[in-house]
Design goal:
Layout lengths: L6 E5 L2 E3 L2 E6 L2 E6 L6 E10 L2 E11 L25 H18 L22 E9 L2 E7 L6 E3 L8 H17 L13 E9 L2 E8 L8 H8 L5 E7 L11 E7 L3 E5 L2 E5 L9 H14 L7 E5 L5 H6 L5 E6 L2 H13 L5 E5 L2 H11 L5 E5 L7 H11 L3 E6 L2 H11 L3 E9 L9 E8 L4
Parallel strand pairs: 4-6, 11-12, 16-17, 16-19, 17-18, 19-20
Antiparallel strand pairs: 1-5, 2-3, 3-4, 5-6, 7-8, 7-10, 8-9, 10-11, 12-13, 14-15, 20-22, 21-22
């Protein structure tokens, strides 16, 4: 019988999410920061039923796929979970994770292709959302410690790159010099809750998330930013909610750029602080290019893009030969999508601000009998029963599903496969060094006799 603090010999048999799984004394034991095939002495940290969790005391046999993690915070900060593996093994982990979820949860038999890697394995993130904690005069901005809400000041995080590290350094210096109080989750006091930023094509948008009205002068912060960034915009967002939602509903422009303006895949777009935009530009472009290849748009009469963000994918897929509808719940993103349609002269796009569960049935009802293609890119909770049933009732000819959580993808595909064949499943490494993976699935409607 295993107990907490027992030391056991452990062999990592398979990967399971961000951990490995093996067995000891009849228990399934989960241990992080190990490679499959490695043997280790492990201290048991938690036991419940026939499941236990542990941490490595000493490696006994080292995998050829193990590398020295280049980050000094690895294992402490909760941002990265796979930095101890070489990149080929990270990609194998992600492909196997998707395949396991599809087989176990979705009962999906389709082949899962090898995970497509990112050109950048560090310095790839164009966005950061970091909690602000500590005490007045000693502010910490960084990532949460693994399995906790304790913030670790990460000076030199490798995922965001130089721009992010300069920004964090400037903000900490600003807060400490003015005596800005960081947020306290226990009693909901303090001035600043989060630092949120987006950096695309040399343009930076910075949002300070304030716990109520912000009572400090932003001029010193803007002066610090101007020394490192030629083009930046500064905003303050008000969030007084007592929960873990990062941003509130009210955002005010302070100075500088009001939006980022750029062009990807031949599409001009604008980004505001709250706009959804994939965090890895190179992988985003690869996915959107593949979606365009997967859809047979020659016969399409209506295209519907659900959870469309600022509408870049909609614009990539749009044509003057058919109508396109983009459904997005965030008003600022819908505004950006309208601006994008005008910038690109796309006259047959209709951008709809609303909940997909409410708006998708209306769009489908208005276009009954037409050749219909649908793309979906939902948040981690996936589509769910209601949207899947709407799609089954609408019977679009093709569906392309972009997923950031293969578990909910598997659940949804299981519901849809009664009428659809899953013809293509491709993982993409949107988030190198982490256990997260993006997946593209293509579904074609099965012809009925």
């Amino acid at each position: 019988m295993l107990r907490v603090n027992d030391i056991v010999e452990y062999t990592a048999e398979n990967y399971s999410n961000a951990e490995t799984v093996g067995h000891a004394d009849g228990y399934s034991v989960f241990v992080p920061f190990v490679a499959v095939g490695e043997r280790a002495l492990v201290r048991i940290t938690y036991v419940k039923g026939s499941v236990a969790y542990g941490e490595v005391v000493r490696l006994l046999q080292v995998s050829p796929h193990r590398v020295n993690a280049p980050c000094k915070y690895f294992g402490k900060c909760g941002g990265c979970s796979l930095m101890h593996l070489d990149y080929a093994e990270q990609l194998r982990f992600k492909r196997d994770k998707v395949a396991a979820n599809l087989a176990k949860i979705g009962k999906i038999q389709a082949e899962v292709l090898p995970c497509i890697g990112s050109d950048k394995t560090v310095g790839y993130r164009n966005k950061l959302s970091l909690p602000v904690r500590g005490v007045r005069g000693n502010v910490r901005v960084g990532m949460y410690k693994r399995n906790s809400h304790q913030v670790i000041q990460t000076n030199g995080c490798l995922l965001g790159g130089d721009w992010a590290n300069l920004l964090v350094s400037d903000f900490v210096r600003y807060c400490n010099s003015l005596g800005v109080a960081p947020y306290n989750e226990r009693d909901f006091t303090g001035d600043v809750r989060h630092l949120v930023a987006r950096f695309v094509d040399g343009q930076l948008l910075v949002t300070v998330v304030s716990n109520g009205k912000f009572g400090y002068d932003f001029a010193p912060f803007a002066e610090l930013l101007s020394k490192h960034f030629d083009r930046f915009g500064l905003f303050v967002n008000i969030n007084t909610l007592r929960n873990n939602v990062i941003m509130g509903d009210e955002t005010q422009h302070v100075c500088g750029l009001e939006y980022i303006e750029s062009e990807h895949l031949g599409v001009k777009f604008r980004l505001q602080p709250a706009s959804f935009f994939q965090v890895n530009d190179g992988v985003k472009n690869a996915i959107y290019t593949k979606v365009r290849q997967l859809l047979d748009l020659a016969q399409t009469e209506v295209l519907v893009d659900c959870f469309s963000g600022i509408g870049v994918l909609t614009a990539v897929l749009a044509s003057d030969r058919y109508d396109a509808y983009a459904i997005e719940i965030e008003p600022s993103a819908t505004y950006d999508a309208d601006q994008m349609a005008q910038l690109n002269g796309l006259t047959r796009i209709t951008n709809i601000c609303g909940d997909v569960t409410e708006q998708l049935p209306r769009v489908i009802a208005a276009n009954r009998g037409k050749c219909l293609c649908v793309t979906v890119d939902p948040p981690r909770k996936g589509l769910g029963d209601k949207i899947c049933r709407t799609l089954l009732d609408a019977r679009p000819d093709a569906i392309v599903y972009i997923s950031c959580d293969s578990a909910t993808l598997a659940r949804d595909l299981n519901m849809l496969q009664c009428d659809y064949d899953v013809t293509y499943i491709q993982p993409y490494d949107m988030f190198p060094q982490t256990d997260q993976v993006e997946t593209v699935a293509s579904l074609n409607r099965r012809q009925r006799d």
